[in-house]
Amino acid sequence: MAYSELIKNFEKIRDYMRDFYVYGFKTRTDFDAKSARSYDNERRRVESWLSDYMSFRQDANGKQMFLSVDSRSIPHNPLYKAYKAKSFTDKDIILHFYTLDILMNGESLNAGEIAERIAVDYLGFFDTDILPDDSTIRNKLKEYASIGLLKAEKVGKEIRYRRVESDITDARLLDAISFATEDNPAGVIGSFLLDKYEAIPEYFSFKHRYLLDALEQEILIQLLLARRNRKCVEITFKPRASDKKHVSKLYPLKIYVSTQNGKQYLMAYSYKGRRSKMYRLDHILKVNALEYEPDHEKYDSYEQKYAAFLWGTTDGWRRDREIEHVELMVHIGDNEEFIYSRMLREKRKGTVERIDKNTIRFTADVYDALELVPWIRTFIGRIEKLDSNNKSFVQRFYKDLDDMYSMYGGDGDDI
Protein backbone atom coordinates (compact mmCIF):
# COMPACT_ATOMS: atom_id res chain seq x y z
CA MET A 1 0.00 0.00 0.00
CA ALA A 2 1.46 3.35 -1.04
CA TYR A 3 1.65 5.93 1.69
CA SER A 4 -0.95 8.72 1.57
CA GLU A 5 -2.08 11.31 4.12
CA LEU A 6 -5.68 10.69 3.04
CA ILE A 7 -7.90 7.94 4.46
CA LYS A 8 -10.93 6.03 3.17
CA ASN A 9 -12.14 4.41 6.38
CA PHE A 10 -12.16 6.49 9.57
CA GLU A 11 -13.04 3.43 11.68
CA LYS A 12 -9.61 1.98 10.98
CA ILE A 13 -7.68 5.14 11.77
CA ARG A 14 -9.78 5.70 14.93
CA ASP A 15 -8.77 2.32 16.35
CA TYR A 16 -5.16 2.85 15.36
CA MET A 17 -4.93 6.25 17.02
CA ARG A 18 -6.52 4.93 20.22
CA ASP A 19 -4.41 1.79 20.56
CA PHE A 20 -1.06 3.26 19.62
CA TYR A 21 -1.22 6.96 20.46
CA VAL A 22 -3.92 7.48 23.09
CA TYR A 23 -3.75 4.36 25.26
CA GLY A 24 -0.09 3.96 24.31
CA PHE A 25 0.30 0.27 25.14
CA LYS A 26 1.02 -1.21 21.70
CA THR A 27 4.23 -1.34 19.72
CA ARG A 28 5.06 -2.09 16.11
CA THR A 29 5.15 -5.85 16.80
CA ASP A 30 1.59 -5.72 18.16
CA PHE A 31 0.14 -4.34 14.93
CA ASP A 32 -2.43 -6.85 13.61
CA ALA A 33 -2.20 -6.33 9.86
CA LYS A 34 -0.78 -7.93 6.75
CA SER A 35 2.74 -6.55 7.16
CA ALA A 36 4.96 -4.21 9.11
CA ARG A 37 4.76 -1.84 6.15
CA SER A 38 1.07 -1.31 6.95
CA TYR A 39 2.08 -0.11 10.41
CA ASP A 40 4.67 2.25 8.94
CA ASN A 41 2.13 3.71 6.51
CA GLU A 42 -0.45 4.26 9.24
CA ARG A 43 2.18 5.78 11.53
CA ARG A 44 3.41 8.18 8.87
CA ARG A 45 -0.16 9.16 8.07
CA VAL A 46 -0.94 10.07 11.68
CA GLU A 47 2.40 11.84 12.12
CA SER A 48 1.65 14.00 9.07
CA TRP A 49 -1.26 15.47 11.05
CA LEU A 50 0.08 15.31 14.61
CA SER A 51 3.87 15.45 14.40
CA ASP A 52 4.01 18.42 16.81
CA TYR A 53 2.33 16.33 19.50
CA MET A 54 4.19 13.02 19.17
CA SER A 55 6.43 11.50 21.84
CA PHE A 56 7.84 8.04 22.45
CA ARG A 57 9.41 5.84 25.10
CA GLN A 58 11.68 2.85 24.73
CA ASP A 59 11.34 -0.23 26.89
CA ALA A 60 11.96 -3.97 26.66
CA ASN A 61 8.87 -4.39 24.48
CA GLY A 62 10.06 -1.89 21.90
CA LYS A 63 9.39 1.71 20.95
CA GLN A 64 6.01 3.01 22.04
CA MET A 65 4.63 6.15 20.39
CA PHE A 66 2.02 8.32 22.08
CA LEU A 67 0.42 11.75 21.98
CA SER A 68 1.74 14.28 24.45
CA VAL A 69 -0.26 17.49 24.72
CA ASP A 70 -0.71 20.30 27.20
CA SER A 71 -4.23 21.61 26.78
CA ARG A 72 -3.21 24.94 28.34
CA SER A 73 -1.00 25.74 25.35
CA ILE A 74 -3.17 24.21 22.59
CA PRO A 75 -6.07 26.49 21.65
CA HIS A 76 -7.64 24.02 19.19
CA ASN A 77 -8.11 20.28 19.33
CA PRO A 78 -5.48 18.76 16.99
CA LEU A 79 -7.38 15.47 16.60
CA TYR A 80 -9.95 17.18 14.36
CA LYS A 81 -7.32 17.10 11.60
CA ALA A 82 -7.99 13.40 11.08
CA TYR A 83 -11.53 14.15 9.86
CA LYS A 84 -10.17 16.49 7.19
CA ALA A 85 -8.02 13.89 5.46
CA LYS A 86 -10.71 11.91 3.63
CA SER A 87 -9.60 10.41 0.32
CA PHE A 88 -11.34 11.16 -2.98
CA THR A 89 -11.24 10.03 -6.60
CA ASP A 90 -10.57 12.04 -9.77
CA LYS A 91 -14.30 12.08 -10.49
CA ASP A 92 -15.07 13.28 -6.95
CA ILE A 93 -12.86 16.34 -7.33
CA ILE A 94 -14.13 17.08 -10.84
CA LEU A 95 -17.77 16.92 -9.82
CA HIS A 96 -17.18 18.98 -6.70
CA PHE A 97 -15.63 22.03 -8.34
CA TYR A 98 -17.48 21.87 -11.65
CA THR A 99 -20.89 21.51 -10.03
CA LEU A 100 -20.38 24.35 -7.57
CA ASP A 101 -19.00 26.55 -10.35
CA ILE A 102 -21.98 25.84 -12.61
CA LEU A 103 -24.41 26.83 -9.85
CA MET A 104 -22.35 29.82 -8.73
CA ASN A 105 -24.68 32.42 -10.23
CA GLY A 106 -27.74 31.14 -8.36
CA GLU A 107 -29.20 29.06 -11.19
CA SER A 108 -31.51 26.14 -10.45
CA LEU A 109 -30.73 23.17 -12.72
CA ASN A 110 -31.69 19.51 -12.90
CA ALA A 111 -29.18 16.64 -13.01
CA GLY A 112 -29.36 16.32 -16.80
CA GLU A 113 -28.63 20.00 -17.37
CA ILE A 114 -25.68 19.88 -14.98
CA ALA A 115 -24.32 16.77 -16.69
CA GLU A 116 -24.54 18.47 -20.10
CA ARG A 117 -22.75 21.59 -18.82
CA ILE A 118 -19.92 19.48 -17.39
CA ALA A 119 -19.51 17.54 -20.65
CA VAL A 120 -19.67 20.55 -22.99
CA ASP A 121 -18.47 23.62 -21.09
CA TYR A 122 -15.73 21.95 -19.02
CA LEU A 123 -14.54 18.52 -20.14
CA GLY A 124 -15.24 19.28 -23.80
CA PHE A 125 -11.95 21.17 -24.02
CA PHE A 126 -9.89 18.17 -22.89
CA ASP A 127 -9.00 14.83 -24.42
CA THR A 128 -10.17 12.71 -21.48
CA ASP A 129 -12.10 9.53 -20.81
CA ILE A 130 -13.07 10.31 -17.20
CA LEU A 131 -16.46 11.81 -18.06
CA PRO A 132 -18.81 10.86 -15.18
CA ASP A 133 -22.01 9.11 -16.20
CA ASP A 134 -25.44 10.54 -15.40
CA SER A 135 -26.06 8.21 -12.46
CA THR A 136 -22.76 9.25 -10.82
CA ILE A 137 -23.66 12.91 -11.18
CA ARG A 138 -27.16 12.32 -9.86
CA ASN A 139 -25.82 10.46 -6.81
CA LYS A 140 -23.31 13.23 -6.10
CA LEU A 141 -26.07 15.86 -6.28
CA LYS A 142 -28.19 13.84 -3.84
CA GLU A 143 -25.21 13.52 -1.49
CA TYR A 144 -24.53 17.26 -1.56
CA ALA A 145 -28.21 18.01 -0.95
CA SER A 146 -28.23 15.65 2.05
CA ILE A 147 -25.25 17.41 3.67
CA GLY A 148 -26.53 20.91 2.95
CA LEU A 149 -24.18 22.08 0.18
CA LEU A 150 -27.05 22.16 -2.32
CA LYS A 151 -30.78 22.77 -2.05
CA ALA A 152 -33.00 20.20 -3.83
CA GLU A 153 -36.38 21.54 -5.00
CA LYS A 154 -39.11 19.57 -6.74
CA VAL A 155 -40.51 21.49 -9.72
CA GLY A 156 -43.23 19.48 -11.44
CA LYS A 157 -41.84 15.99 -11.93
CA GLU A 158 -38.15 16.92 -11.79
CA ILE A 159 -35.67 17.71 -9.04
CA ARG A 160 -33.70 20.92 -9.48
CA TYR A 161 -30.61 21.92 -7.53
CA ARG A 162 -29.17 25.26 -6.50
CA ARG A 163 -26.38 26.40 -4.23
CA VAL A 164 -27.04 27.19 -0.59
CA GLU A 165 -25.64 30.57 0.29
CA SER A 166 -24.28 30.95 3.80
CA ASP A 167 -23.19 33.92 5.88
CA ILE A 168 -21.20 31.70 8.20
CA THR A 169 -18.14 33.87 7.64
CA ASP A 170 -19.84 36.68 9.57
CA ALA A 171 -17.15 37.81 12.03
CA ARG A 172 -19.77 38.29 14.74
CA LEU A 173 -20.12 34.51 14.95
CA LEU A 174 -16.39 33.85 15.23
CA ASP A 175 -16.11 33.85 19.03
CA ALA A 176 -19.18 31.67 19.48
CA ILE A 177 -17.98 29.10 16.94
CA SER A 178 -14.45 29.07 18.35
CA PHE A 179 -15.74 28.45 21.87
CA ALA A 180 -18.25 25.78 20.82
CA THR A 181 -15.59 23.97 18.80
CA GLU A 182 -13.64 23.15 21.95
CA ASP A 183 -16.54 22.85 24.43
CA ASN A 184 -19.36 21.23 22.46
CA PRO A 185 -19.54 17.41 22.29
CA ALA A 186 -19.91 17.75 18.49
CA GLY A 187 -17.20 20.40 18.19
CA VAL A 188 -15.77 18.93 14.98
CA ILE A 189 -18.56 20.76 13.13
CA GLY A 190 -17.24 24.07 14.43
CA SER A 191 -13.71 23.10 13.41
CA PHE A 192 -14.84 22.81 9.78
CA LEU A 193 -16.61 26.18 10.03
CA LEU A 194 -13.46 27.83 11.43
CA ASP A 195 -11.60 26.78 8.29
CA LYS A 196 -13.59 29.46 6.47
CA TYR A 197 -11.92 32.23 8.50
CA GLU A 198 -8.43 33.64 8.00
CA ALA A 199 -7.86 34.64 11.64
CA ILE A 200 -9.10 32.28 14.36
CA PRO A 201 -9.37 33.28 18.06
CA GLU A 202 -6.79 31.63 20.27
CA TYR A 203 -7.71 33.21 23.58
CA PHE A 204 -10.05 30.53 24.98
CA SER A 205 -8.59 28.27 27.65
CA PHE A 206 -10.28 25.44 29.55
CA LYS A 207 -9.56 24.09 33.02
CA HIS A 208 -11.19 20.71 32.30
CA ARG A 209 -10.77 19.79 28.67
CA TYR A 210 -11.08 16.37 27.09
CA LEU A 211 -9.41 16.23 23.68
CA LEU A 212 -9.86 12.51 23.09
CA ASP A 213 -13.64 12.62 22.61
CA ALA A 214 -12.89 14.03 19.13
CA LEU A 215 -12.32 10.46 17.94
CA GLU A 216 -15.95 9.53 18.72
CA GLN A 217 -17.63 12.61 17.26
CA GLU A 218 -18.50 10.96 13.95
CA ILE A 219 -20.30 8.22 15.94
CA LEU A 220 -21.92 10.83 18.19
CA ILE A 221 -23.33 12.86 15.30
CA GLN A 222 -24.78 9.76 13.63
CA LEU A 223 -26.53 8.82 16.88
CA LEU A 224 -27.87 12.34 17.39
CA LEU A 225 -29.25 12.44 13.85
CA ALA A 226 -30.97 9.08 14.37
CA ARG A 227 -32.41 10.34 17.65
CA ARG A 228 -33.70 13.55 16.07
CA ASN A 229 -35.33 11.61 13.22
CA ARG A 230 -36.80 9.01 15.61
CA LYS A 231 -34.94 6.18 13.91
CA CYS A 232 -33.59 2.99 15.42
CA VAL A 233 -29.97 2.09 14.74
CA GLU A 234 -27.73 -0.91 14.35
CA ILE A 235 -24.42 -0.50 16.13
CA THR A 236 -21.27 -2.58 15.88
CA PHE A 237 -19.29 -2.41 19.11
CA LYS A 238 -16.35 -4.08 20.77
CA PRO A 239 -15.74 -3.71 24.52
CA ARG A 240 -12.11 -2.96 25.33
CA ALA A 241 -11.69 -6.22 27.25
CA SER A 242 -13.00 -8.32 24.36
CA ASP A 243 -11.66 -9.20 20.92
CA LYS A 244 -15.13 -10.07 19.63
CA LYS A 245 -17.37 -7.61 17.79
CA HIS A 246 -21.04 -7.46 18.65
CA VAL A 247 -23.99 -6.13 16.65
CA SER A 248 -27.11 -4.81 18.35
CA LYS A 249 -30.31 -3.07 17.28
CA LEU A 250 -31.12 -0.11 19.51
CA TYR A 251 -33.33 2.92 19.86
CA PRO A 252 -31.08 5.82 21.02
CA LEU A 253 -32.39 7.73 24.03
CA LYS A 254 -29.75 10.07 25.45
CA ILE A 255 -26.04 10.88 25.47
CA TYR A 256 -24.24 11.12 28.82
CA VAL A 257 -20.86 12.82 29.23
CA SER A 258 -18.76 12.28 32.36
CA THR A 259 -17.59 15.49 34.01
CA GLN A 260 -14.81 13.50 35.71
CA ASN A 261 -13.06 11.92 32.73
CA GLY A 262 -14.89 13.16 29.61
CA LYS A 263 -16.03 9.68 28.55
CA GLN A 264 -19.25 9.63 26.55
CA TYR A 265 -22.04 7.07 26.85
CA LEU A 266 -25.13 6.22 24.86
CA MET A 267 -28.27 5.33 26.76
CA ALA A 268 -30.39 3.23 24.41
CA TYR A 269 -33.24 0.76 24.44
CA SER A 270 -32.07 -2.70 23.37
CA TYR A 271 -34.73 -4.50 21.34
CA LYS A 272 -33.16 -7.89 21.99
CA GLY A 273 -32.63 -7.37 25.72
CA ARG A 274 -35.96 -5.49 26.06
CA ARG A 275 -34.45 -2.96 28.43
CA SER A 276 -32.41 0.23 28.49
CA LYS A 277 -28.63 -0.12 28.50
CA MET A 278 -25.52 2.06 28.45
CA TYR A 279 -22.81 1.84 25.77
CA ARG A 280 -19.47 3.64 25.81
CA LEU A 281 -19.02 5.61 22.61
CA ASP A 282 -15.35 4.68 22.31
CA HIS A 283 -16.44 1.02 22.13
CA ILE A 284 -18.80 1.68 19.19
CA LEU A 285 -17.19 1.02 15.81
CA LYS A 286 -20.04 1.71 13.42
CA VAL A 287 -23.58 3.12 13.39
CA ASN A 288 -26.17 2.39 10.72
CA ALA A 289 -29.47 4.27 10.83
CA LEU A 290 -32.45 1.97 10.23
CA GLU A 291 -36.18 2.50 9.88
CA TYR A 292 -38.39 5.07 11.58
CA GLU A 293 -39.65 3.90 14.97
CA PRO A 294 -43.45 4.40 15.05
CA ASP A 295 -43.60 3.65 18.81
CA HIS A 296 -40.92 6.20 19.66
CA GLU A 297 -43.07 7.89 22.32
CA LYS A 298 -43.21 4.63 24.29
CA TYR A 299 -39.44 4.18 24.08
CA ASP A 300 -38.81 7.85 24.86
CA SER A 301 -40.58 7.37 28.19
CA TYR A 302 -38.08 4.63 29.09
CA GLU A 303 -35.31 7.22 29.36
CA GLN A 304 -36.92 8.94 32.36
CA LYS A 305 -37.82 5.62 33.98
CA TYR A 306 -34.28 4.33 33.62
CA ALA A 307 -32.64 7.59 34.67
CA ALA A 308 -34.76 7.84 37.84
CA PHE A 309 -32.27 5.69 39.78
CA LEU A 310 -29.17 6.25 37.67
CA TRP A 311 -26.19 7.88 39.41
CA GLY A 312 -23.42 6.90 36.99
CA THR A 313 -23.47 4.53 34.04
CA THR A 314 -24.63 1.26 35.59
CA ASP A 315 -25.75 -1.09 32.82
CA GLY A 316 -29.48 -0.94 33.35
CA TRP A 317 -32.14 -2.18 35.66
CA ARG A 318 -32.65 -5.92 36.17
CA ARG A 319 -35.69 -7.61 37.67
CA ASP A 320 -33.51 -9.52 40.15
CA ARG A 321 -31.74 -6.38 41.35
CA GLU A 322 -33.00 -4.42 44.36
CA ILE A 323 -32.86 -0.63 44.28
CA GLU A 324 -30.17 0.41 46.75
CA HIS A 325 -30.93 3.05 49.37
CA VAL A 326 -28.10 5.25 50.64
CA GLU A 327 -28.18 7.58 53.64
CA LEU A 328 -25.28 9.87 54.49
CA MET A 329 -25.04 12.12 57.57
CA VAL A 330 -22.50 14.96 57.26
CA HIS A 331 -21.32 17.39 59.95
CA ILE A 332 -20.60 21.01 58.99
CA GLY A 333 -19.01 23.74 61.04
CA ASP A 334 -20.55 27.06 62.00
CA ASN A 335 -18.93 28.84 59.04
CA GLU A 336 -19.23 26.07 56.48
CA GLU A 337 -22.48 26.81 54.70
CA PHE A 338 -20.63 26.19 51.45
CA ILE A 339 -20.73 22.45 52.24
CA TYR A 340 -24.53 22.52 52.27
CA SER A 341 -24.61 24.52 49.04
CA ARG A 342 -22.14 22.14 47.45
CA MET A 343 -24.24 19.07 48.29
CA LEU A 344 -27.32 20.72 46.77
CA ARG A 345 -25.35 21.57 43.65
CA GLU A 346 -23.52 18.27 43.16
CA LYS A 347 -26.18 15.68 43.99
CA ARG A 348 -27.40 13.92 40.87
CA LYS A 349 -30.24 12.09 42.59
CA GLY A 350 -31.88 12.10 46.01
CA THR A 351 -32.55 14.80 48.59
CA VAL A 352 -30.46 16.98 50.90
CA GLU A 353 -32.06 17.86 54.24
CA ARG A 354 -30.92 20.22 56.99
CA ILE A 355 -31.36 18.24 60.21
CA ASP A 356 -29.97 21.00 62.47
CA LYS A 357 -27.43 23.80 62.29
CA ASN A 358 -24.48 21.44 62.02
CA THR A 359 -25.95 18.28 60.44
CA ILE A 360 -26.97 17.48 56.85
CA ARG A 361 -28.65 14.29 55.69
CA PHE A 362 -28.37 13.08 52.11
CA THR A 363 -30.57 10.22 50.91
CA ALA A 364 -30.84 8.60 47.48
CA ASP A 365 -32.19 5.48 45.79
CA VAL A 366 -29.88 4.21 43.05
CA TYR A 367 -29.11 1.12 40.97
CA ASP A 368 -25.56 0.79 42.30
CA ALA A 369 -24.50 2.44 45.56
CA LEU A 370 -20.81 1.84 44.75
CA GLU A 371 -21.03 4.56 42.11
CA LEU A 372 -21.45 7.13 44.90
CA VAL A 373 -18.17 6.20 46.59
CA PRO A 374 -15.91 8.75 44.82
CA TRP A 375 -18.31 11.56 45.74
CA ILE A 376 -18.86 10.38 49.32
CA ARG A 377 -15.09 10.18 49.84
CA THR A 378 -14.86 13.95 49.31
CA PHE A 379 -16.65 14.36 52.66
CA ILE A 380 -14.18 12.24 54.66
CA GLY A 381 -13.55 14.00 57.97
CA ARG A 382 -17.19 15.17 58.11
CA ILE A 383 -19.08 11.86 57.81
CA GLU A 384 -21.10 11.03 60.93
CA LYS A 385 -22.94 8.05 59.52
CA LEU A 386 -23.17 6.06 56.31
CA ASP A 387 -25.91 3.45 55.91
CA SER A 388 -27.47 1.44 53.10
CA ASN A 389 -29.56 -1.66 52.47
CA ASN A 390 -26.50 -2.84 50.53
CA LYS A 391 -24.40 -3.79 53.54
CA SER A 392 -21.42 -4.85 51.41
CA PHE A 393 -21.24 -1.27 50.08
CA VAL A 394 -20.99 0.14 53.62
CA GLN A 395 -18.48 -2.52 54.70
CA ARG A 396 -16.31 -1.87 51.66
CA PHE A 397 -16.33 1.86 52.27
CA TYR A 398 -15.14 1.54 55.87
CA LYS A 399 -12.67 -1.20 54.97
CA ASP A 400 -11.10 1.15 52.42
CA LEU A 401 -10.73 3.74 55.19
CA ASP A 402 -9.15 1.20 57.52
CA ASP A 403 -6.72 0.20 54.78
CA MET A 404 -5.86 3.83 54.17
CA TYR A 405 -5.26 4.45 57.89
CA SER A 406 -3.04 1.38 58.16
CA MET A 407 -0.99 2.66 55.25
CA TYR A 408 -0.79 6.38 56.07
CA GLY A 409 -1.87 6.63 59.69
CA GLY A 410 -4.60 8.89 61.06
CA ASP A 411 -6.26 10.35 64.11
CA GLY A 412 -9.15 8.60 65.76
CA ASP A 413 -11.60 11.48 65.22
CA ASP A 414 -11.11 11.80 61.47
CA ILE A 415 -14.56 10.29 60.89
Question: What's this model, at a glance?
Answer:
The protein is an alpha+beta fold and 415 residues long.
Could you list some keywords that capture this structure?
415 residues; four-stranded antiparallel sheet; 34% helix; five-stranded antiparallel sheet; elongated; alpha+beta
Topology diagram in text:
Blueprint: H1 10-22, H2 36-50, E1 54-59, E2 62-67, H3 90-102, E3 109-110, H4 111-122, H5 134-146, E4 150-155, E5 158-163, H6 174-183, H7 188-194, H8 217-228, E6 231-237, E7 246-257, E8 264-270, E9 275-280, E10 284-292, H9 296-307, E11 324-331, H10 337-346, E12 351-356, E13 359-366, H11 373-377, E14 383-388, H12 391-408
Antiparallel strand pairs: 1-2, 3-5, 4-5, 6-7, 6-10, 7-8, 8-9, 11-13, 11-14, 12-13
Structure, described:
The mean pLDDT is 84. The protein is built from twelve helices and 14 strands. Helix 4 crosses helix 5 (134-146). It is of the alpha+beta class and 415 residues long. 20% of the residues are buried. The longest helix is centred in the last third of the chain and has 18 residues, at 391-408. The chain has helices at 10-22, 36-50, 90-102, 111-122, 134-146, 174-183, 188-194, 217-228, 296-307, 337-346, 373-377, 391-408; strands spanning 54-59, 62-67, 109-110, 150-155, 158-163, 231-237, 246-257, 264-270, 275-280, 284-292, 324-331, 351-356, 359-366, 383-388.
